[in-house]
Amino acid sequence: MILKSIEASEIELFPYKPRKFQREIVLAIRESLESGTPLVLESGTGSGKTVCAVSQALKFSIENGKKIIYITRTNAQQRQVITEVRNIRKRFPEFKEDIFTVGVQGRAHTCLLARSDPELSKGSAEELSRFCSEMKKRKRGDGCPYFENMNDKFDEVEKLGEWIKDYIPTTEEIIERCRTLVMCPYELNKIMVGDANLVVAPYIYVFDDRLRNLLLDLMGVSEEDAALIVDEAHNLPEYLRDLLSSYLSVYAVNQCITESERFGDPFIFKSIKLSNFLLVVRDAIDQIRSDFLRENENDALLSEDTFLSIISDSLDITRKDIRSIAEQLVLIGEEIKEIKQREKKLPRSYIYRLGVFLLSWIDMDDERFVRLVVDETEGKNPRIEIYCLDPSLGAEPIERFHTSIHMSGTLSPLEEYKDSLSLPEDTRLLSFPSPFPKENRKIIYSPAVSTKYEEIKFSDDMVDKIKSMIVEI
Q1: How much of the chain is in helix, strand and coil states, percent to nearest 5?
Q2: What percentage of the chain exceeds 70 in pLDDT?
Q3: Is the pLDDT of residue 368 over 80?
Q4: CATH number among 1.10.1040.10, 3.40.30.10, 1.10.275.40, 1.10.287.1700, domain 243-388
């Protein structure tokens, strides 16, 4: 696609002297925002995609009254967006009152109780939401002191809000200020989001239905009245596959056994006790690993009946019986979560998760999913998976927005990215070369590390290895 030229004076709200290709990138983003036509944009690392997108998104928001949701993969990317907004307001003080940005993060990162409790810090959004609801309901002195102060110290909350609007702090800066004042960063951000014309949030706030509806309610808009910007978009297809996938590991079954020892070991079907069923499930995973994984292999496809057949044969029950057991596990797990919630603990139940997983495994008849056995631990913690092959199943919310802009330094082939998310046929595909001379590049390859999402997720030390290698270089 050939872009018309753009003069420097046309790059409104752009805080720097434009570098090579930045005028063209700005124009492409502006056209997407104004026309409502999605844009897939590839431009090398360091080419200034973030400031190009932020400046034009803010300009569009001011002129058209629409809001912007800018989603990022990491907290570092969120900080970069906040930094660029600060620079824009500093460079164009006449627009300071028109520009306000809030960085949103989940309770796992912003809840001060969770940050000081290793168990709570690992909670899911749903688990921490339940925990938070329980703490809010408790009488004064027995609940959350940070939330209580939000209700009692109105003047302090108002001053915090004024500071946020004036300074546009990062989430980390808000957390530290709230820690000092014994206020809740999560609740404070919820208050401020409604006034923001640009909200920076993790991917999950768009692709989880409950969180997306919460965010839009706080912003006071529908999807049609907001533009979506996806940063580091090359991560999105695999992120969506992972979001729609689920797995059951030997570790998780062992946690179920621990729960049954603490909360009781009832009969869950005729003469079958919960503990007996759990042992059969664990043995089934180990048997599948032994039968299907050859030496030096860490995953293999499974047929639908493999896992269920082992359970059926071991316990002399039918597929329908397994469904009844799964439904019973969900009920037992819900009771466990309620008990933990009353104890002011993370309302998590592995038995509940097992029940949900079994129901999904039984009901899965979509060719866009496959069943796998995976072992990356040399037999210590094998797992079975329901793996999503088609990320477009989770990308449906994208088309509801006024437009979507997908940016990354590594998106080629662009057509494949567009098709993987089922973006509209008229989506614009643009790729710009790196603005830096090739002779300035230093390329280092190491087989010892990987930036693949699934490897980082299941390997706690991978990020530390990458950091160490960068420091050594």
Answers
A1: 55, 10, 30
A2: 96
A3: yes
A4: 1.10.275.40
